[in-house]
User: Fold these one by one.
Assistant:
Number 1:
Amino acid sequence: MSGAVALVVAAGRGHRFGGELPKQYRLLAGKPLLRHCLERFLAHPAIDAVRVVTNPLDAALYEKATAGLALLAPVAGGDTRQQSVRNGLESLAADAPAHVLIHDAARPFVTAPMIDRVIVALGRSAGAVAALPVVDTMKRAAASGARIEATTSREGLWRAQTPQGFRFADILAAHRAAAATDLTDDAAVAEAAGLAVELVEGTEENFKVTSEADLQRAERVLAGAWEYRNASGYDVHRFAPGDFITLCGIRLPHDKSLEGHSDADVGLHALTDAILGAIGAGDIGQHFPPSDPQWRGADSARFLAHAGELVARRGGRIVNLDVTVICERPKVGPHREAMRRRIAEILRLEQDRISIKATTTEGLGFTGRGEGIAAQATATVALPAGLTAGPS
C-alpha cells in the first residue's frame, strides 16, 4: 500500500472518565466521540485508509458508532496503549503503507491542516508530532504536592498531541524493539530507537477528552459554534454541433452539444464555484485549469465532488444548494428530479437540500436566441466557527 493510513487508538476503557460507557463512545453533539475524529481522517485526501484499534468487549458499541463508514476491519488492542498501537501496526505490515498517523480516539477535533503538517514533515523526518509550545510558567511540586519546590524553565518545552506520524517501517521496528517497555506515547518509542522526530504545530482545540468536564468543553465548542456562509456561482457555454448535452450531471438528448471546459456542464460548474466561494477556495479554474489537457471532456461530477471534499476537510457541511438554469431549450422540468438525485449522490447529501429551477429570457439575449445555456447557483455552507485550523 502506498500513501498514509490513520491508526486510531480506541481500545481503552476510560476508567478515569467514570461511568459504564467508555469515553470514546460517549455522545458529543449527537455522535460518538470516536466518530468525530474518524470522519475527519476519512475526509482527508492524503489518508488512504483508516483502521481502529478496539477493545473486543466493545464490539457492539464499535459497530453502532462506525455504521456506514468505509473503514478497514478493526483490530483488537492490548493491555496498554503501547501494546494496542503495536497490534495495530502489525495488522498493517502485510500491506504496509509508506506512512502511518497514530491518533487518540479521545481527540475529536483534529483538523485537516494539522494532518497536512504531519504528512509534509514526514518528507523530512522519520517522525512528526502535533504539539503546542508551553507558554505558562512551569512549577515543580514537592513530593507531597502541596508546595512549590522549584520553577522550571519552559524554554524548549512542548505539549505533545496526536496525530503522531511516522514512516511505517521505522515505527514498526521501533515498537518491536520496545515491546518490553511501557512508554507514554509513540514519539517516545521512536526516540528510544534513535529516530528523528519533528514537532509541528497543533491547535488548542485538539484537546484530549479525559473527564466529564472535557466532554462539556467539547460540547461548548460545537454547540452553536457554526458560522454560515453564502456564495454564488455563474457559468455559461455556447452550443456546438452534437446530439446531447450534460446538464446538472444528467445526459440529455438534444440537437446540439455544449462547448467548453470538461463536459461543459454549466449547472455543475456554477454549483462548484458557489461551494468554493463559500469556503474562500477560489474558483473552478484554479483547481482544474482549462488549459490542462487532462480535464478535456472530464466528468464535471469530479469537480463538484472535490468542492464537497474541501468543505468536509474543514469540518463543515453543505446546508443548501440552489441552481437556476437559463435557456430556451431543452426543457429542464422533466429532468429536475433526476438532476437533484445526481447532485445528492455526488455530494452524499440529502436531496431536500438541493433545488433545481429553470427560466427563459423571453427570447432576449444569447440564451433567448438559442446560442447557449447559462446557469447561476447559490450555496450555503456551515463551518465550525469554534475550531481554528492553525497555520496552513
Number 2:
Amino acid sequence: MRRALNILVVAALVLATGCAMRAETELKKLKVGMTQAEVEKVLGKPVSTKCVRFPAYQRDYLVWEYMMVPERKLVCPSEGAARILSGVATLGLSEIAWTHAQAKPHWVYFLDGIMVYAGLGFDCSQPNTCTIHEQGSDLSCR
C-alpha cells in the first residue's frame, strides 16, 4: 500500500510540472516564416488573439497570446527542497498552483499570416509602448 502511495505522489508531481508550457523550451520550436497553422500545430490554440501596433511601425501585428512559465533557475537548494516537500504533502497541487502563478503572457507576432517574432508579451497600458486594435471578422488585423 505504501509503495502504491509513493508511486501516486511521484506521478502527481510529474503531471503537475507539465501543466504550464515552459517559454524557452516552447518558443525554441518556432521559426521565423512559419505559417499560423504551423505555429498552432506546435503550441496549440492561443489563449487570445489581438491586433497590436507599436509606435515606430505603421502596421498592426496579429498577436497570438500564450500563457507560459519563464525559464528560471532555482535560486538556492532550499527553494527546490521546499517545492518538493510541499508538492509531496499536497499530492502535487501546490506545484500546479506554483506553475500557474508564475505563467506570463508570451506573444507570437504575425504579418500577412507569417510568424515574424515570438517573445514575452508587452503591457500596452504603459505609455508609448503599444496599442491594441480591433480584429477583423476573419481574425486578421485591419
Number 3:
Amino acid sequence: MNLVDFKNNDNGASLLEVMIAMVVLAIGFLGVIALALVLTNNNAAAGKINTATAIAQAEVSQLNCLRTSGILQNFPQISPWTYTYTVNPTVSTPDKRNTVTSCITEALSKGGHAPDSSLGVTIPYTVTINFFNNPNPFSSTLINAQIEVGWRDIGRHIIVMNDIIS
C-alpha cells in the first residue's frame, strides 16, 4: 500500500501562482474586448462612408444622365449655384428637381422608404451640389459640379466628388 506524504509534495500550484495566472488572463481578455470594440466602431464608420459614397456616385450618375441641358432646365443660372437636399432612412425632404425622376433612384427622387439593399441609408445624409461654370474657353457647354455628402454622428464627416458635365 502506498501512502502519500502531503507535507513534502510540491507538485501542485500555490494560491499565489493561480492568482498571478488569473491576472495575466484577465489583462489578455480586456485587451481582446478593447480590440473588438475598436473593430466594431471602425466597421460602423466604414459602412457610413460606403453609403455616402454610393449616394455621391448616384448623384454623379444622375448629373451625367441629365447632361447640361437637363441641369439648365432645373438651374437656369450656373455661375456658381448650390443645391442641397437630405436623404433620410425615410426620405422626408426628397429631391424635387423637375427632370430628376428619369435619371435617379427612387429613394433620392420621390421620397418614401430608402431601399436598404441598394444604398443602405440608416442615418440622415445631406447632399450638397455646387455648380460652377467650366473655365474652358473652347467649350461653353461644360459645367463643373462638386458633390458633397455629409453626415453627423460624432463630429461632421463629408465625402466629396467632382464631375464635369457635358
Number 4:
Amino acid sequence: MKFRWFRNFLKGCSLTAALFVFQACYGTPTGIYEPIEKNFSFEVFNADGTQALSNAKIYAKCSNNGHTQTDSTTTGANGRATISFTFPERLNPIFEFTVKAEGFVQKDTAISYTAETDDTLKIYLQKK
C-alpha cells in the first residue's frame, strides 16, 4: 500500500512527459495559417525584347477570400522592379498585374499562387 502513491506519481510524470513531447513536436494549434511573403520581380521590355523600359508603372492586386492588397511600383533604368505581398498560406490567392508605359499598349495579367519562393515575370509591351 505504501507504493501506491509512488506508482500514481510515476504514472502522472509519464503522462506529463508524453504530453510535453507531443506539444514540442506539433506545437499548439493557432487556428490561423502562417503568413507567407511572396515576392514578384518584373522585367519590362519592348515587343522584341531589345530595350528595357524604364519608368513603366506596375499596379498589382492580391485577392484571397475577400481580402485584397494593392501595391504599385515603377521600373528602374534597367526595366526591373519588385513587389511583395504577405498573405495567409493555403488560401490560393490570385495576383493581378497591370503594366503601363508611355507610348506602349497597357498589358494586364493574372496568375494564381505557386509554391516557388521568387518569380520573375518578363513582360513585353507592344508600341501603340
